[in-house]
Amino acid sequence: MSQSVGRVPQRRNARSNRARILATARQELGRNPDITLEELARASGVVRRTLFGHFPGRAALLEALAEEAAEALHTAVAVEAPVAEPADRALAHFTLSMWPVGDRYRMLLALARRDLGVERVDEILKPARVRVTGIVEQGQRDGVFHPHLPPAVLSAGLEAMTVALLEEVNTGAFEDDGTRVAVATLIAAGVPEERALTVVDDAAATAAAEHVADD
Predict the structure, then answer these.
(1) Which residue range or ranges hold the HTH tetR-type domain (predicted)?
(2) Radius of gyration, alpha carbons of the chain
(3) What stretches of the chain show up as alpha helix (H) in DSSP?
(4) Taking a C-beta distance cutoff of 8 angstroms, is the pair 181, 158 a contact?
C-alpha cells in the first residue's frame, strides 16, 4: 500500500515537470529556435536527466509541442458557431478565437521547415482551413465576400497572411490581441474597412462578455 501511495506524488511530479518543460519550450524556442536541450532543462528548472526522461531528443520535444498545438486548435475549431451568423461576423469570431492559439504556438512556424516539416504544420492547420473555407463559401454565396477567387484559394490566402503576421510577432515587429488581424482578414476577404471595423469590435465585445460569463 505504501509503495502505491508513494507512486502518486511521483506521477504528479512527472506530469508537472513535463508541463513545465513544454511551457518553457514554447517561450524559449520563440526567442531562440537553436536552444539546446541542456539550456532548455536549465531554463525549465529541471536536471538534464529529467528532461531527457520525458523527451529523449529534440524531435520528440517538438512533436509533443506539435501534438499540443493540434489539440488546442482542434478544440477551438470544434466550438460551434451561432446559427445563422453572417459570414463576416463568423470569420471575425473565428479569427479572434484562433489568434490566441496561433500566438501560443507561433514558435512552431520558425521550426516548420527545418525540424517539423511543412507537411506536419499543414496537418495541424487543416481543421482551421476547412472551417474558414466553409465560412468563405457561405460569404461568397451571400455576397458578403468578393467572389474573385474560389473559396479554397481565398481561404489559403487568408491563412498565409495570418501565418505571415504570426512570423512578424516572432521577430518582434508586430504585436496584436487578434483584433487588427481580424480586421485585416475581413478586408482581404472583400469586406469594406468601415464594416470590418464594426464587425470585429462587435465580435470582440461578444467574446469578452462570454469569457466573463464563463468565469
Answers:
(1) 15-73
(2) 20
(3) 2-31, 37-44, 48-54, 58-78, 87-104, 107-111, 118-141, 151-171, 179-189, 193-214
(4) no
Set of cell numbers at residue 20: 513545465
Distances, alpha carbon 27 to alpha carbons 21, 44, 171, in Å: 10, 10, 13
* Residue 86, SS3 per DSSP: coil
Cβ–Cβ < 8 Å for 170, 108: no
DSSP 45: T
Structure confidence by residue, pLDDT tens digits, 93-132 = 999 999 999 888 888 887 877 788 888 888 888 999 999 9
Per DSSP, the three-state class of 175 is coil
Eight-class DSSP state of 81:
P
- In this structure, what C-alpha cell is assigned to residue 165? 503576421
> Helix, strand or coil for residue 109?
helix
Name the pTM for this structure: 0.82
| Three-class DSSP category at 99 | helix
